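User: Quick one: structure for sequence A, then sequence B.

Assistant: Sequence A:
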Amino acid sequence: MAELEVSTPMLTSLPLVTASESRQFDQLAEQAGLPSLVLMENAALRVAEVLQQHFELDPPKRIVIVCGKGNNGGDGMALARHLHNIGFQVQVFLLADPDELKGDAAINYRAAFNFGVPIQSITSSDQLSQLIEPLQTADLVVDALLGTGIAGEVRGLYADAIPLITQNSTRILSIDIPSGINSDTGEVCGVAVRADATVTLGAVKLGLVLFPGADYAGDLFVGSLGIPEQLLTKLNIRRFVSTYELVGRALPPRHPNTHKGDYGRVLIVGGAPGMTGAAIMAGKAALRAGAGLVQVALPQSLNIAVETAALEVMSFPLPETEAGTIAPEALNALADRLNWADVIAVGCGISRNERTQTFVRQLVAQVDKPMVIDADGLIALAGHSEILRRRKSPTILTPHPGEMAALMQTTVGEVQRDRVGTALKAAREFNAIIVLKGARTITAAPDETMLVNLTGNAGMATGGSGDVLTGIIAALLAQTITRHSQVPNPQSLTEAVAASVFLHGLAGDIASWEKGEVALIAGDLLDHLPRAINEPELSQPLTLRPLSPFVRFVVRMRK
């Protein structure tokens, strides 16, 4: 048999797959000589591990497993057999006639039955009342009803059973994906099981990291099926979860024989009356994230704010409008500073003054330097996509959903309905790396590479948080560019941006451990960014009982 070929290493160790790609992954394994029955056996063992280690359950605890007639139910049957064999009190409810089972599911049903596992068949909704007492008294309920194949709404017996399971179970563990969640989009297909934890198998499904699917999945684990992860490269997967490995690649150890010029020069252009803090926080964040030199350019009358509030940040006063915002004449005044900078960040607190918006468009159109554009800088470019498309240097846009809607000439609702598709479309249309902010921030590149960030929390929904992110991105870009002594390859740029988003969220998580989410402010992110940079592995959740190398705890959702 020919040896499997693998291609270049992935951006991170956690690729994201669709339902179709997951099936192709299994097919490649079978073609390589790994039978589907072995994959199902490995799946059951991974779920059993999470059941025991994460939920801290030992025999003879009571486990109820609700199975469907497909392969997800087959996984449940195999799990039931393993748990029964080591002394758990297992009860299986099969929501189908056993004669409907086929293939591996039928094999595992017969094995479980012959080994003495109690299996009760339910074939109509009026029999579902038999589930209630077992669900309520079980130490854990395992959802093995529906897998990744569901597309339309859940109907019939399963539609009646799913609310019953959620309402009557104290704790629920879903196999592969909560029944009723679309594995490609995270949408609820009418009804869905709300699990406390999910063990997805082989690779993480895209719908498990997007809302609302992420909320229904609960604590997310990925279990190995015994298939080499590199096999996914044959499918050219370009979607990933951002993980702490990115930080080491974007911020490698520093050599002792270096100076501040080796870590990049960042110019922050922004600020307006009432919003000076935005530019200052971006400047501070750039320094905290390792930039060698940072200068903030803002309206002349506000220059003293930087001088007094941020001792390490240099300032540069600019001509201003009658409203005290940056005037178009500032472009000439900035000429030397623009040549000095390795990366320019524009938009933080810059205002929507008409003349200032003209300045932003001129700056973006005329200055051929790597640029991070945020906030009202994005609003200035809404309806002017040709300016972005003509740029030759790397461009990073960091919109929240409202700013993305303005850029794409659509509504916030449309953006939120398809965050992945919108981010990828914008990346292609604007020839830019897009950071679509929000719960599960998405980084999308023009080459279709996409990363979903799992760090961060609701406490970061506060003014100034985005300005801190802009500064971090500018700093990591500047260091990446100076490290390569030229504009680096697109993958390195995308990794640097995704690592910035990751660190921003992790700083927020670390801050929340001390402050809580309600009291969190943007300045707390600056205070806790150093620990995020030094200990990025803090993002990796742990169980009280250790997991084997065959299972990875991806993200903790249930506190």
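Sequence B:
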Amino acid sequence: MMTRLRRSGVALATLSMVMLTASLVHSDEGMWLFNNPPTRILKERYNFEPTAQWLEHLQRASVRFNSGGSGSFVSAEGLVMTNHHVAADTLYKLSTPERDLMSVGFHAQRREDELKAKDLELNVLMSIEDVTDKVNAAVPKDLSPGEAFAARRKVMSEMEAEASKATGLRCEVVTLYQGGAYHLYCFKKYTDVRLVFAPEKDIAFFGGDPDNFEYPRYCLDVTFFRVYENDKPAKIDHFLAWSEAGCKDGELTFVSGHPGRTSRLNTVGHLQYMRDVQFPYLLNYLRRLEVLLKVYSERSAENERRAQDDLFSIQNSRKARLGGLAGLQDPALMQAKLEAEEALRAAVMKDPKLREEYGSAWDEVGKAIAKARNIFLTYNMLERGQGFSSEHFSTARTLVRAAAELPKPNAERLREFRESNLESLKFSLFSEAPVYDDLEVVRLADALSYLVEQMPNAALTGLVLNGKSPRDRAAELIRGSKLKDVAERKRLFEGGAAAIDASTDPMIKLARLVDADARKVRKEYEEQVDEPLRQAYAKIARATFAIKGSDVYPDATFTLRLAFGEVKGFEEDGKQIPALTNMGGAYEHMARHGSKAPFVLPKSWIDKKNAISLDTPFNFVSTADIIGGNSGSPVVNRKGEVVGIIFDGNIHSLTLDFAFTDVQARAVSVHSAAIIEALEKIYGATHLVEELRGKRAAGR
């Protein structure tokens, strides 16, 4: 989801309570599990009760993009709709110096013209099983944190492998409520994904950075793909019917998507750690990368094309963290969090049984956070690879670790190498997406310089540089490596430990050099931070269930969730902001800014202005509870029909990572009527419109 620099001006002190849990009172709050929907709340507030069939249909019509983001099936022939900015990674990888799809867009007139994505995997959630008792039974309470971590990893990997073998699906055990519950999710995956249509960037991201996280908006942030099986369009049973009328002001809508990560259940001490350590560090790191890529981009038009996807991603991340930090620095938000935490702790301590079982949880979180502070820097530099940032190094590390991990029993492997994840890992590892040596050298040189700055006295730093400057060492490593060659990657992967040990590739040698220290700090983090936090938060979750009941949703985990809300405007600076904009407003918006970039509509829109109905609804806002990862999520009405697609939030949504409010915070979507109007009258994509309307016969 796009983000914004400015902080929210909402008076969080007006919130009646900022919940440590997500228990609802009078708001449209909640990123709900499909196997625990907010049925009671919807019935009481909106007189709507979703049936099991309604939920299953929406669940199986929803799509997760492995590149980050959401989407949905919108035809029986495998047509998938998502955002242009979710598709940006694929558009970048399919572009060439002669044909920049990000800039000029793409329209496949025939099926044979649809472009196959390099390494895009889509997942559809087919089943959910609560396996909490099975996981907990495998981890006795008397185990040490290290033993508990190993036991938990073992049982999760075994369940995933067994389920994958039995179903043929990609299965993973998802941790919910930060350890309070575990669910087994099984996904059908699609790896033959082809680009069908994308508009020009100038309309997909109309208004650019100045308009990002603003409203009103005028963006056609939409792209269509098609999934194939056996070289033919996949036949889809569960797809969303299209509403050409779309939604209107005051209407109840639903969002089915994959919100990435929230921290609403975190203790105040944990939030303070994020405020004081994690966010400031990460912001400085992102600012550094942003400057680096901007300078690189300014050297030539081709450099700009090569770096634009990375730069866009880093700018988004920086803005998201800056907005989150603003929320954490808001005394009203933190005071509300503190009061909610104290109320929950008081309720626990009042009950002798709850006190005995859960009373120590908050202190346990504090101890784990203290350990995290001590190893934060080393963990980020070595295990998370911030000291070696490059595609080459990521590839080398995967190859080196695969050689060490795959011979082990499945239950003992690092999680990314577990059997149920192996096909997806190989699909990504053997991608034929372009890698540019000059950009790689620039990125790695800066990363090595950062390593020297952050760990100047570490013996490993000297070994990594090998007597050279960061720039010279980076050039030596990148220019001397053969890992850009897919065939070489396959040779090393299939050759296992013998091939890795014998390799003289400088990047493989670097990954081998770093691996022992990186594994050490990873083990320390998993056993002394992750596992204690998981156990402590599991106690807090169980205490919450005991006190507040079942109307509680977990923090976001990039897994499928259901949100709901009204199409509704908001008040800002004493002015009422309408819920909907129209297509004519885009031309007016351009004129108000003197037709200067980034407020310049593409030529296709200027040429066809007289052909479209200018009063067609374009973008709209709702009170639905969304966050990054929801980008591309379908917005549906009570009938389950598509009325829009999520693409952003307004500036008041910046604090939703930590606390929900619908006073001013809004989700921003593209209206379904505008999509049809643009496809038909601006782009001449009549075949696509007919497919969305369900009127076109198979084939073309």
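The chain is about 45% helix and 15% strand. The longest strand covers residues 181-190.

User: Thanks, that's what I needed.
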